[in-house]
């Protein structure tokens, strides 16, 4: 019969069509014999009814169909057998035939398979009648089913037996409950049926040719639920308490699972055990259950099954805090950790991804069940490091992904990187990541800090943190610059810059240590990173300077305290590092920020030094004309706000500034920079800086440059161009006129207005709507000031705006 089955499996290309034809013939046979069976039953002709039912069931003897098609045929016969069972029940109820006689009668069927189906059907009626103990009938049936050893036919026969008996087991509280031992009989019946079904299921894999092995695997997979239903029935038996499960049920199931030595069966059945039995049973029998895992076949996907067990138990722990003491009592963590170690030892060929996945599941379990036990978490990480020892950086993308999951789990659970920094094995696990993934993990860490607004407040923790994110703050060994995507690099460095602002301590001494630690690391990062990280460090340091404002720092001793002077020294060194980039514009901006902070701290020499460095950068490094324009206006704006300089230092700086302004490449740029310099000589809130003569001098010089720009435009383009510069200067005159500078009189303003009108009306002038609007708006402002009355109105009264 096995040879015939093997021959059928090796069907030619047209085998599928042949199989459909055989299925159709089988269904036709079932329907035809079912018709005659019903006609005989309707006539109360039991003899013919049994004959046709046996002929109908003989269709299930075929070896030609695949499991899927055989199932279709079986379901047609199953539906008819339910009607036959109802007839038998009615016959015995009326007394037309005793159930004992019926039980004997069906055993005369010619073929074994129809005979056993009929026996199971009558057996169901026999148990229902209660004329014999359920345990005796069930034992008889399960033993007789051994007569069918063909895997496919035997599986479906035993599935039928399981189906018709599941509501007739002698369980506690059942109407079929017998003596005290009846529960053992119910369990034994289900276990025996399960064991025999599993043997038949496994035997299917070893029939036929080796070439058909994959196909047989798929067919067996379709039949797995037939076997698994027995475990589901077991889980529904009320009489199985924890003691019986621990002493009888689980050991018997595991014995069959281990001894079958079939990877498909072992994987599926272990999964079934985990899914169908209660969580508290798993917890109390954890050692027994876990002892089976190292004995499974090497090809079994143990990591998935173990992970499901840990997930289920961790969900159980999360569902009710009252059960947590049970986990401690049974030492669940230690048992899982030990089991994983044994599984890895038993499977030396297990890929790295499998090893890491097991530890990810164990870590997830630990974080959910024992979140307060950091030593457990570190122990899991250490065990993973131990198993990975001797291996190079991981190249398997799946294993790398699992390592990232392992490292991310504590961050997600604790929402605090400071907790992760206490795990000594955390950085050791990161060492197994390749350079690209190290960066990804570093970004994950920084994102966790930003999301949870975690403040890292000690230099020691920052040392540990920077060791974790070293992939972002310096070039890794073997990293290639051409592998770096520019946009990704910018995003990474911006995240580091944001991180620096999360480093804070209210104690100035500790904050100074933090700044020194950050400086040490970022200055080792190479020129391309400095433009992103240095500004954050500078502004973080300046925040500390503002807090310490007023301390002069003239303290002697071995430990120099945190003072503005000390911090400005660090800032000077840090900004100097930008020279190697080079990034002179950024360095100049930072020098000016430091100068302003030094001004607020009353440190004139320090502020003067920062301005000096800014001017040196301007002279020697900034050559681009647009950059020069931006720089000179920044210098002017910053210098205007300074109030600490003495006369000599201020004169030196203002002289330099006005000199640079007049040397810009384009005349309009010169003009605007020079009239901006006028603000350096008149400020409202500072005594002594009210030099009207020099304000007027700057404005007159701006007029001369504007006039020169007009003449140059006339010589080169044939027209004098726009008079916008004159209007801008007029607005500056009006500003200082309102400030009350004696040298700026209404006569001077009137003359400038007339000059603008003359220039506009000249033949060489170019009409410009925006310039016209600008001039008209300025004149309207003068009229508006006149209408205010009072001292302002009197000032403007003498200025005529109409031509």
Automatic annotation (TrEMBL):
<keyword id="KW-0472">Membrane</keyword>
<protein>
    <recommendedName>
        <fullName>Vacuolar protein sorting-associated protein 35</fullName>
    </recommendedName>
</protein>
<dbReference type="Pfam" id="PF03635">
    <property type="entry name" value="Vps35"/>
</dbReference>
<keyword id="KW-0963">Cytoplasm</keyword>
<dbReference type="GO" id="GO:0005770">
    <property type="term" value="C:late endosome"/>
</dbReference>
<dbReference type="GO" id="GO:0005829">
    <property type="term" value="C:cytosol"/>
</dbReference>
<keyword id="KW-0967">Endosome</keyword>
<dbReference type="InterPro" id="IPR016024">
    <property type="entry name" value="ARM-type_fold"/>
</dbReference>
<keyword id="KW-0653">Protein transport</keyword>
<keyword id="KW-0813">Transport</keyword>
<comment type="function">
    <text>Plays a role in vesicular protein sorting.</text>
</comment>
<keyword id="KW-0333">Golgi apparatus</keyword>
<dbReference type="GO" id="GO:0042147">
    <property type="term" value="P:retrograde transport, endosome to Golgi"/>
</dbReference>
<dbReference type="GO" id="GO:0010008">
    <property type="term" value="C:endosome membrane"/>
</dbReference>
<dbReference type="GO" id="GO:0030906">
    <property type="term" value="C:retromer, cargo-selective complex"/>
</dbReference>
<dbReference type="GO" id="GO:0005794">
    <property type="term" value="C:Golgi apparatus"/>
</dbReference>
<dbReference type="GO" id="GO:0006886">
    <property type="term" value="P:intracellular protein transport"/>
</dbReference>
<comment type="similarity">
    <text>Belongs to the VPS35 family.</text>
</comment>
<dbReference type="InterPro" id="IPR005378">
    <property type="entry name" value="Vps35"/>
</dbReference>
<dbReference type="InterPro" id="IPR042491">
    <property type="entry name" value="Vps35_C"/>
</dbReference>
């Amino acid at each position: 019969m096995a040879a015939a089955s093997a021959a059928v499996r090796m069907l030619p290309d047209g085998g599928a069509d042949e199989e459909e034809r055989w299925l159709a013939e089988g269904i036709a046979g079932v329907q035809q014999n079912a018709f005659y069976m019903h006609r005989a039953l309707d006539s109360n002709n039991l003899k013919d009814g049994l004959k046709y039912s046996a002929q109908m069931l003989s269709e299930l003897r075929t070896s030609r169909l695949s499991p899927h098609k055989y199932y279709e045929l079986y379901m047609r016969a199953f539906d008819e057998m339910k009607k036959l069972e109802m007839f038998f029940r009615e016959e015995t109820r009326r007394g037309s035939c005793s159930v004992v006689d019926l039980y004997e009668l069906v055993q005369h069927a010619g073929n074994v398979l129809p005979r056993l189906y009929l026996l199971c059907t009558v057996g169901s009626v026999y148990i229902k009648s209660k004329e014999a103990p359920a345990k005796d009938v069930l034992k008889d049936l399960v033993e007789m089913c051994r007569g069918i050893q063909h895997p496919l036919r035997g599986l479906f026969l035993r599935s039928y037996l399981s189906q018709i008996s599941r509501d007739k087991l002698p369980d506690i509280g059942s109407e079929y409950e017998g003596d005290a031992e009846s529960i053992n009989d119910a369990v034994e019946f289900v276990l025996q049926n399960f064991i025999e079904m599993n043997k038949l299921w496994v035997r299917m894999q070893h029939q036929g040719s080796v070439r058909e092995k994959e196909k047989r695997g798929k067919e067996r997979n379709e039949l797995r639920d037939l076997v698994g239903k027995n475990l589901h029935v077991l889980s529904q038996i009320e009489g199985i308490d924890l003691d019986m499960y621990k002493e009888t049920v689980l050991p018997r199931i595991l014995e069959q699972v281990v001894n079958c030595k079939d990877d498909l069966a072992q994987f599926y059945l272990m999964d079934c055990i985990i899914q169908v039995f209660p969580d508290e049973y798993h917890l109390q029998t954890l050692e027994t259950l876990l002892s089976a895992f190292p004995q499974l076949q090497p090809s079994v996907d143990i990591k998935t099954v173990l992970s499901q067990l840990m997930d289920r138990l961790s969900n159980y722990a999360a569902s009710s805090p009252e059960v947590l003491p049970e986990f401690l009592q049974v030492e669940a963590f230690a048992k899982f950790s030990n089991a994983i170690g044994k599984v890895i030892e038993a499977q030396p060929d297990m890929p790295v991804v499998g090893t890491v996945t097991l530890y990810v599941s164990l870590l997830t379990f630990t974080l959910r069940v024992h979140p307060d036990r950091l030593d457990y978490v570190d122990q899991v990480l250490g065990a993973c490091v131990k198993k990975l020892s001797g291996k190079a950086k991981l190249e398997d993308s799946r294993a790398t992904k699992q390592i990232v999951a392992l490292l991310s789990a504590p961050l997600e659970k604790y929402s605090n990187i400071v907790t992760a920094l206490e795990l000594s094995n955390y950085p050791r696990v990161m060492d197994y990541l390749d350079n690209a993934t190290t960066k990804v993990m570093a970004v994950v860490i920084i994102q966790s800090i930003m999301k949870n607004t975690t403040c890292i407040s000690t230099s020691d923790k920052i040392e540990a943190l920077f060791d974790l994110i070293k992939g972002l703050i310096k070039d890794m060994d073997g990293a290639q610059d051409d592998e770096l995507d520019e946009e990704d690099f910018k995003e990474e460095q911006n995240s580091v810059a944001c991180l620096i602002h999360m480093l804070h301590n209210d104690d100035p001494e500790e904050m100074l240590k933090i700044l020194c630690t950050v400086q040490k690391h970022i200055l080792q990062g190479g020129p391309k990173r400095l433009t992103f990280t240095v500004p954050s460090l500078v502004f973080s340091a300046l925040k500390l300077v503002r807090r310490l404002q007023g301390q002069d720092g003239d303290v002697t001793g071995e430990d120099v305290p945190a003072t503005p002077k000390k911090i400005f020294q660090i800032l000077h060194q840090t900004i100097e590092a930008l020279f190697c980039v080079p990034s002179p514009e950024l360095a100049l901006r930072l020098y000016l920020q430091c100068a302003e902070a030094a001004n607020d701290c009353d440190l004139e020499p320090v502020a003067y030094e920062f301005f000096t460095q800014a001017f040196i950068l301007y002279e020697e490094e900034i050559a681009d004309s647009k950059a020069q324009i931006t720089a000179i206006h920044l210098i002017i704006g910053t210098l205007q706000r300074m109030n600490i300089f003495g006369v000599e230092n201020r004169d030196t700086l203002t002289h330099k500034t006005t000199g640079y302004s007049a040397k810009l490449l384009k005349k309009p740029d010169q003009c605007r920079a020079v009239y901006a310099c006028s603000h350096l000589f008149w400020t409202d809130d500072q005594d002594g800086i009210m030099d009207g003569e020099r304000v007027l001098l700057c404005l007159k010089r701006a007029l001369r440059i504007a006039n020169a720009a007009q003449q140059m435009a006339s010589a080169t383009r044939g027209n004098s161009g726009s008079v916008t510069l004159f209007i801008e200067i007029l607005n500056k005159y009006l500003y200082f006129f309102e400030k009350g500078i004696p040298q700026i009189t209404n006569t001077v303003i009137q003359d400038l207005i007339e000059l603008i009108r003359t220039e506009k009306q000249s033949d060489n002038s170019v009409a410009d709507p925006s310039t016209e609007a600008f001039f008209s708006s300025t004149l309207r402002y003068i009229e508006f000031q006149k209408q205010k009355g009072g001292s302002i109105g009197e000032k403007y009264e003498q200025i005529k705006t109409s031509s």
